[in-house]
Amino acid sequence: MGISILVTLLVTLILLGSGVWVGVALGLSGVVGMTQVLGMERALQVASKVIWEQNTSFVLLAIPMFIFMGELLFQSGTMSRVYLRAATVVSGFPGGLLQANIAACTLFAACSGSSVASAATIGSVGFPEIAKRGYHKPIALGSIAAGGTLGILIPPSIIFIIYGSLAEVSVGRLFLAGILPGLALAGLYALYIAVRCLINPRLAPYEAGLGIRARVRAAIGLWQMALLVIVVLGGIYGGIAGPTEVAALGAFLALLIASVSDEFSLAGVWRAGLATVRQTSMILFVIFTAKILAMTLIFFRVPATVVAWTEAADMTVGSIFLAIVVIYLILGMFVDGIAMMVITIPFILPILAAAHMDLIWMGVVICMLIEVGLLTPPVGMNLYVLQGVTNESIRDVIVGSVPFLLLQFLMIAMLYWQPSITLYLPRIIMGN
């Protein structure tokens, strides 16, 4: 059995190291390992059953709906108007348009669920105006890259949907658990920008406040975002519908909002649909191939062995938490966030259960660690997406992101010392 496990892991590492798609690497290594235990025919039967169950999962149906919702807002130009209105609302604040980056990313996060989409959207909409006004480029690029990471923490979050499916916990509770940490992290970003720009005003030119009336009108102009947030969160926590039904309703509302835009076109809807199909296919492919590998590890009794080793080592909650952080930090430098999560969850969940660690709390922590991976080279997706849409130096993007990366570590430490930051809202709204 030990040799079979080594063969499976070796195949996985070779395929991943050779540049093969993550989904292909996970699926092939899983089937190879399963064949050693069950034989080829039975292994293929189990794999096909896993594929069918994952691709017909009602919970995962929410993923394309939320992606489509965000894509429609981008293709219709709605996010361009949101950015300009957010800039008006925060005008006069230290940091000027840098604060608008954080505000717009926070709003888009509440309507998208994708960090990469948030960074690409705000980067393409906001950075040209920022560059034209003479802002310090590294801090401007860093604010967009870091603000984009809020897309997977503030609900609706695709990462939470996937984690909820894998860990078999309530997606609604995960959504609630992500609200306070997401807003707190956005607040830390905004505070850092304000302090930094007060200390060194050359980083951001002074943007005069536009007055109360202009700000109120701009805030009222954000009604589309407010409506989507109310429908998505209110629908779930009001007991009206589950995440999947609410996602479908949100996508329909996004289509109505986009249809009244001056930039609306059927070609834009077509592009949004194609982008949704591409992203959904990639995500589901990685999920079901990782599930095949997870089944193989179960046949090899790897999770049970890991739990037994953890209990024998008498690891504390703090040491387990630190070990998970280190593992995700290392993997985050080389592996995509979704792939990283679906690879590790089969190992981590039994350990968390044995240590009686709250799975909702750890779901938010893991989401935060994936956020860190989005800003850490050499495979920090937000870094390269932002560099691609702005055509700026990747060095400036990385340098500007470092302070925000440190703030993410601070937030992770806060979540460890105060789990109630994540658990307060789920408990008071949905009970224990």
What is the rounded distance between the termini? 41 Å
SSE series: HHHHHHHHHHHHHHHHHHHHH
Spans of at least 5 consecutive residues whose pLDDT stays below 50 are none
Global shape: globular
Structure notes:
Helix 7 runs antiparallel to helix 8 (137-148). The two termini are 41 Å apart. The mean pLDDT is 81. The longest helix is centred in the middle third of the chain and has 34 residues, at 266-299. The chain has 432 residues and is mainly alpha-helical. It folds into two domains: 1-56, no CATH class; 60-430, no CATH class. The chain contains 21 helices and no strands. The protein has helices at residues 2-17, 22-38, 40-55, 62-75, 78-89, 97-109, 115-132, 137-148, 158-167, 171-199, 212-220, 223-237, 243-259, 266-299, 302-312, 317-332, 337-354, 359-374, 381-390, 394-417, 420-430.
Task: List strands and helices in order, with pairings.
Layout lengths: L1 H16 L4 H17 L1 H16 L6 H14 L2 H12 L7 H13 L5 H18 L4 H12 L9 H10 L3 H29 L12 H9 L2 H15 L5 H17 L6 H34 L2 H11 L4 H16 L4 H18 L4 H16 L6 H10 L3 H24 L2 H11 L2
Helix pairs in contact: 1-2, 2-3, 2-14, 3-14, 4-13, 4-14, 5-6, 5-7, 5-11, 6-7, 6-8, 6-10, 7-8, 7-19, 8-20, 9-17, 9-18, 10-18, 10-20, 10-21, 12-13, 14-17, 15-17, 16-17, 16-18, 17-18, 18-20, 19-20
What would the keywords be for this entry?
432 residues; 2 domains; 0% strand; 78% helix; mainly alpha; 21 helices
